[in-house]
Amino acid sequence: MVPGSVILIGGDPGIGKSTLILHMLAAYADHGRKALYISGEESAHQIKLRGKRLGALRDSVLLGTESGVERIVAMTRDQLPSILAIDSIQTMNCDDVSSAAGSVTQVRESASRLLEVAKTLDIPVVLIGHVTKEGTLAGPRVLEHMVDTVLYFEGDRSHSYRILRTVKNRYGSTNEIGVFEMKNEGLEPVTNPSQLFLAERPIDAPGSVVLPSLEGTRPILVEVQALVSPTNLGTARRTAIGSDSQRLSLLCAVLEKKAGMDLYGHDIFLNIAGGIRIDEPALDLGVICALASSLREKAIPADMVVCGEVGLAGEVRAARNIEARVIEAQRQGFKEFVMPRSNVEQLNKVEGINISGVSNIQEVLDAVLLNNS
Question: What are phi and psi of 99, to 5 degrees?
Answer without folding.
Answer: -70, 165
